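Before the break, one more example. Copy the sequence into your notebook; we will annotate it together after we see the structure.
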Amino acid sequence: MGEASAHRHVLCFVAAFSRYPDAIAWARQRLETHWGPLALESALFEFRETAFYESTMGPDLQKVLWAFQQLIDPASLVPRKLLTNQWEREYAARHAGPEPRPLNLDPGYLTEAKLILASTKDRDHRIYLDQGVFAENTLYFHAGSWQKRPWTYPDYQRADYHQFLVRCREYYRSRKYEDS
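Here is what the structure looks like once it is written out:
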């Protein structure tokens, strides 16, 4: 029988997207105020793989990926998802645009082996955590590169995302043995 033990801390990850640059700037400020400074920030990507969000978020969406300096306990994924959902509602309430959801924040974490994203939507491949939050193993690292799963969102299959996630993995590997 194996012995249960605490998990090593992981790299906190957030994807943010919107059609409004001020929404992304607001999200970054809010995240850094609460979770500390960024370690890495991606370029601003065109979010063009699906029109799914257009009805609630509008057209011409842009997405940015962030990794934070502070390593976190992976068990903190539930409160982080609940908090980012609260921030989305807060931004929507103060935003004057026509969209009901002008900002989307997707927290998760990265290890050497995987990228986990939090979701409030249940699917066959998601694991229930607590308080209506599920975890999805979106990508895994194998044979020197990030690999997709059958359910991996199309944008997370992009080479430019993978290049940024390789940088995140390298950063995590340089810090993973630190006590957090």
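The helical segments are 21-35, 54-57, 77-94, 159-175. The chain has a mean pLDDT of 95. Try to locate both features in your own notes.
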